[in-house]
Design a protein that fits this description.
Blueprint lengths: L1 H10 L6 H11 L2 H5 L3 H5 L6 H8 L4 H12 L3 E4 L7 H4 L7 E5 L10 E7 L5 H16 L2 E5 L5 H11 L4 E4 L13 H10 L1 E4 L11 H11 L3 E6 L5 H11 L3 E4 L10 H8 L3 E2 L3 H19 L9 H5 L23 H9 L5 E2 H5 L5 H13 L3 E4 L3 E4 L2
Parallel strand pairs: 3-4, 3-7, 4-5, 5-6, 7-8, 8-9
Antiparallel strand pairs: 1-2, 2-6, 10-12, 11-12
């Protein structure tokens, strides 16, 4: 409790930016030592402005105790920078928030999750909504925890997709976590609290001011291994998040869309700037599987095949499906048990890697076997992570 009050005292001062707090902590080591610093000690920090020095010399803790009391009444958890549960990905960015306020039904250690941001425009199209929902659902099924901003449009669709898969999602707000913004997302916010986390660096009661949202975007990207932009015009907060992700040395992805639509011109432009194209969830999952495969397997749910016309736009007339033909590999080609098991899953009809993984084989083992079978000339890889027998 004693250390918490010093963290709050330091971060609740409006005169002190995150970078100024960083300077103070670099100099004194802990918020408690900053609290007990006197005027002479502060004069030794040349970068400190007079109003900032005055703020640090104000040792009043009344506001701190009010915030603690509000958090207790509203069941808001306070996460400080030195907590073992503080997300290490976020801690590594240039200007991390030193205190986070959280609402969640159960404690979720984000250090035990592979996280991905999914963001886009508030004024989204039917295409953007559908693609985002299907993609977020598939990412959750693949074991990823999806981070977004709970805004209207793409953010809300991303959260709904994750929730429908029973996955975990994080909503980062540009206001206090006791305020629902936009107001129309009250039901969604409750679902996220029940199944994930609602986070903010702003203390309870902070209104959703426009200046807060670009600030919170660095947290969305900072919490995540990468950022996926599914639909965004040229002027969009989602592009700010993508730029911040690049500056934080994180991966940037985008879903290609109609080049004639203004609402996708920003996200399409990311492709020209080197963003990774996303045609299915596997394009994202494969990027992180080598380093975070254990976490993905730990949180993996029922796999999804990716984007389908039926999922996005309703029922479609089904054409008669040809009966897959099975063939035996040549006797002179040596195969291990895993390679033989994978061959039995394949036929002369293309199958997506998610469908193959759904048969119960770990993705790392499956990917390795498919590579060996391709080298032996028994399997051919098709665009979009599809595989077919080549016997």
């Amino acid at each position: 409790m004693s250390e918490l009050k010093y963290w709050l005292w330091l971060t609740l001062k409006k005169e002190l930016s995150v970078r100024t707090v960083t300077t103070l902590l670099d100099h004194f080591g802990t918020p408690e030592k900053v609290f007990y610093a006197d005027s002479d000690m502060l004069l030794s920090i040349s970068d400190l402005k007079p109003r900032e020095r005055k703020a640090v010399l104000d040792k009043d803790l009344q506001k701190v105790y009010r915030v603690i009391e509000i958090c207790k009444k509203k069941n808001i958890k306070i996460l400080t920078f030195d907590s073992p549960y503080y997300p290490q990905l976020l801690a590594s960015i240039y200007d991390p928030p030193y205190v986070l306020y959280a609402r969640c039904r159960e404690r979720i250690d984000l250090n035990d999750h592979a996280t991905i941001a999914v963001v886009g425009t508030r004024k989204s199209t039917k295409y953007g909504n559908a693609v985002t929902n299907v993609l977020a659902k598939a990412l959750a099924e693949g074991g990823m925890t999806v981070v977004s901003g709970m805004a209207e449009g793409i953010d809300a669709c991303a959260a709904e997709g994750v929730l429908s898969a029973g996955g975990k999602t994080v909503a980062v707000l540009g206001c206090g976590v006791d305020i629902c913004y936009p107001p129309g997302n009250k039901k969604l916010m409750k679902k996220i609290i029940d199944q994930g986390i609602v986070l903010s660096e702003f203390p309870p009661g902070t209104p959703p001011k426009s200046k807060n949202f670009p600030i919170r975007n660095r947290i969305i990207s900072g919490l995540s291994l990468g950022t996926v932009v599914t639909e965004a015009p040229k002027r969009s907060g989602a592009l700010i998040t993508a730029r911040l992700a690049g500056e934080q040395n994180r991966e940037v992805f985008t879903v290609p869309a109609d080049i004639t639509r203004k609402k996708s011109m920003g996200s399409n432009a990311l492709l020209q700037e080197g963003a990774n194209p996303v045609l299915c969830a596997e394009d994202v999952l494969c990027e992180f599987h080598e380093q975070y495969g254990d976490l993905l397997e730990k949180h993996r749910r029922t796999p999804s095949a990716g984007f389908t016309q039926e999922e996005m736009f309703g029922e479609v007339e089904e054409a008669p499906m040809p009966v897959p033909k099975k063939k035996e590999p040549p006797a002179h080609i040596a195969l291990d048990d895993t390679e033989r098991a994978v061959l039995k899953l394949l036929s002369d009809q293309p199958k997506h890697i998610d469908e193959l993984a759904g048969q119960g084989m770990p993705l790392s083992k499956l990917t390795s076997a498919l590579t060996m079978l391709e080298m032996k000339g028994l399997v051919r890889a098709l665009p979009g992570k599809q595989y077919i027998l080549q016997l």
